[in-house]
Write a structure and sequence with these properties.
This protein has 157 residues and is α+β, with helices and mostly antiparallel strands. It has one domain: Ubiquitin-like (UB roll) (Roll), CATH 3.10.20. Helix content is 47%, strand content 13%. It contains four helices and four strands. The strands form two sheets. A two-stranded antiparallel ribbon has the order 1-2. Strands 3-4 form a two-stranded antiparallel sheet. It starts with a helix and ends in a 14-residue tail after the last helix. The C terminus is likely disordered.
């Protein structure tokens, strides 16, 4: 086809196939922001939060632009350039919340890290839903009279 958009997408697909062959398959399902960026042939803009003096809240951020296959090591290099670090051995990207933090493996894809956060939130919601359903079921059982409550069945072999 003569369409420049189709040519651009075909070239991108060819490059990404080489990347996938070299780096291996994705570990997580891509988040919506990534799917939309790929659809529009754009990079994904991320805010990387810098620790401040309290280390529990992160006020300062640095923006970087990544593609679906950008590794943590590549993102660290972007950060080092933006912040102006020359001695980089003692620094790295972490994922953190108020309770814990963990150094990210340099070969992991940045968007897989973000996808894992979405998955964690989904799993947390599912656990909460199951707990709520159990509470409702227990409340219903408590309201039944002794005759209405299901009796255990014993089976003998």
């Amino acid at each position: 086809s003569e369409s420049p958009e189709i040519k651009e997408r075909a070239e991108l697909a060819r490059v990404l196939l080489d990347v996938i062959e070299e780096q291996g398959e994705r570990q997580e399902v891509p988040p919506e922001i990534e799917v939309e960026a790929v659809r529009q042939l754009k990079l994904i803009e991320l805010d990387v939060h810098m620790p401040d003096e309290s280390t529990c809240s992160n006020c300062s951020t640095v923006k970087i632009k990544v593609d679906p296959f950008t590794t943590v090591a590549e993102a660290e290099q972007m950060m080092f350039r933006k912040v102006g670090l020359t001695f980089t051995k003692a620094f790295g990207l972490f994922e953190a919340n108020d309770l814990e933090d963990a150094l990210l493996m340099s070969n992991r894809r940045v968007m897989d890290v973000i996808s894992s956060w979405d998955k964690s939130l989904d799993e947390e919601e599912k656990v909460t839903d199951v707990k709520n359903q159990k509470k409702k079921g227990k409340a219903k059982k408590d309201m039944l009279s002794d005759e209405e409550k299901p009796k255990p069945e014993y089976k003998y072999l």
